Amino acid sequence: MKNVKKWIWEHERYPEFDYDYKGFADSIAAVFRNTGRLEYAVYLLEKKSINSFIIDASADEAVESSKIEGEIVERESVCSSIKKRLNFTFDHSQDKSNRYTDGLADILIDSTINHKPLTKERLHGWHNALFPTGYSGGYKIDVAKYRKGEMSVVSKRGYSEVTHYIAPPHTMVDEEMNKLLNYINYSQEDPYIKSAVAHIWFVSIHPYDDGNGRIARAMANYVLSKELGLNYHYFSISKEIEKNKKNYYEILEKSQNLFYNKDFDFTEWIKWHTDMVNNAIEASLKEIEKIIKKAKFWDKARNFPLNKRQIKVLNKILDIGIENFKGGLSTKKYVNITKTSIPTAKRDISKLLKFGLIEKIEGSAGRNTSYMLKID
User: Fold this and answer.
1) Which of 32, 62, 99, 165 is in the most buried spot, having the most CB atoms within 10 Å?
2) Residue 56: CA count within 13 A, CB half-sphere
3) 10-63: pLDDT as tens digits
């Protein structure tokens, strides 16, 4: 029993990462189509809207990648750091950034914009940016260097510990990382497959004392940005992974453990990862659709003398998304949003109707009368 091989790095075919393309061909086709749609949608945005969209997508990635690891960072601080690093219009008097969020922005932007070959030195730089104080929580760790000790992924269940994965011995790390970097820089693999393989390969090596998950996701983003020729962050993989975090850890464990992955087959992982990328792109497409609808609406609305209350309500509906504003706009909702009186709310709504900015929802009447935005 002592010689039983349990982890993927012990398998004789490692690190080939075998797969059956037929198992995720539909996922590849779908994400390829949506990538093209996203590029065209971004092209249609005005410069001001593009900048805002990039900041939001970038902030999503930084915040959600940290959240997956149980770390909460202030979105406002992240946005300040991203704006500074991208040299977008930035009011330094309103700077909410800090050393940690500056580091997150550095990793995010370097992994997206810098398409030069990925090297050990760059990875160490990312690691240093993640841990600027040299500490993870209250523990001192080796920063900007590969681990010197053994590494395992464990969780607690009651009073006992469960081992989910044991990484290769530290003596193997340098050689394994060289193989991975060579694959990332020179493989002609399909970009979406390559991104998925790089992700699981990195977390399987687990080269650092801490931060491996965040760097693995930055690496997956780097591969896609470089291979697809993207200049900015237009979608957030981590946001989709966070929504499916339980499944994320389950499929990683299933793929890395030879007890479950007896055939040394990574088809399921690649399909799952590709689907997460596709979900992220579809979410961005919906966000761009909202931005375009909002711009189109205000092109018409700016011709009318709107008060602050009306502008606030209209913006709220547009920001949520017309299709997501359940039940439409009622007098009661207007009062709740603006904190005004019922008579004032009715007058404001009446004027919006007169201006042709809203229309009555068919079938609603009396106290239950509700309205929806009218976008031509």
Assistant:
1) 62
2) 13
3) 999 999 999 999 999 999 999 999 999 999 999 888 877 888 899 999 999 999
Q: Does 74 have pLDDT greater than 60?
A: yes
Q: Give residue 203's pLDDT.
A: 97
DSSP for 324-354, written as a single string? GSTT-B-HHHHHHHHT--HHHHHHHHHHHHH
Phi, psi of 140 (to 5 degrees): -75, 130
**Chain centroid, CA 92 distance in Å:** 26
What is the maximum alpha-carbon separation in the chain? 81
pLDDT digits (tens, 9 = 90+) for 114-125: 999 999 999 999
3-state secondary structure 285-318: HHHHHHHHHHHHHHHHHCCCCCCHHHHHHHHHHH
Q: Are 269 and 196 in contact (CB under 8 A)?
A: yes
Q: Which residues of 179-204 are buried (b: 16+ CB within 10 A; e: fewer)?
A: ebbebbeeeebbbbbbbbbbbbbbbb
Q: How far apart are CA 38 and CA 296, in angstroms?
A: 19
Whose CA is closest to 224, among 189, 203, 250, 195? Answer: 195
The tokens for 221 are 């983003």
Average of per-residue pLDDT across 234-251: 96
Helix (H, G, I), strand (E, B) or coil at 118: coil
Tell me the mean pLDDT in the region 306-325. Answer: 91
Token duo for residue 308: 């602050």
User: Mind listing the domains of the chain with CATH numbers?
Assistant: 8-289 (1.10.3290.10), 304-373 (1.10.10.10)
